[in-house]
Specification:
Blueprint (H helix, E strand, L loop, with lengths): L4 H21 L4 H14 L7 H32 L10 H23 L8
Helix pairs in contact: 1-2, 3-4
Length: 123
């Protein structure tokens, strides 16, 4: 961080005012909050990543979340297959949903592995 203690205090006051406004309103706006926050951080010497780098990082986090959500759906849907209900033995709508969720999960995992160059998405 560059600058003196008084500059640090001035930047901190700007950031704190933005935080207080966000908390008080329970809402956030680009023009009212985000742009001024980025400007205050830049002025304080905390330059963020460029758009391409920040977007790639956000996409990686989105991909991780999508995979975890797919695994959770697969797990929830797969339970009836392990404990058949109503003597369906895997031949009902719930069990069909389980197969669909797990097939979608497998396809997502193959696509992500192929995107990273570590897998074959031909299956």
């Amino acid at each position: 961080m560059r600058g003196s203690w008084s500059a640090f205090a001035a930047h901190s006051k700007k950031i704190n005012a933005l935080r207080s406004d966000i908390v008080g309103r329970q809402a956030i706006g680009w023009s009212q909050h985000i742009y001024p926050l980025v400007a205050a951080l830049n002025e304080a010497g905390f330059e963020g990543a460029g758009y391409a780098e920040a977007r790639a990082s956000a996409k990686a986090e989105d991909d991780k979340r999508a995979l975890l959500e797919a695994k959770a759906r697969c797990w929830d849907a797969e339970l009836p297959r392990h404990w058949p209900h109503n003597s369906c033995w895997g031949k009902c709508d719930v069990c069909d949903d389980a197969r669909d969720a797990c097939s979608a999960l497998a396809a997502l995992e193959r696509a992500q592995a192929a995107q990273k160059g570590g897998g074959d998405d031909s299956r």
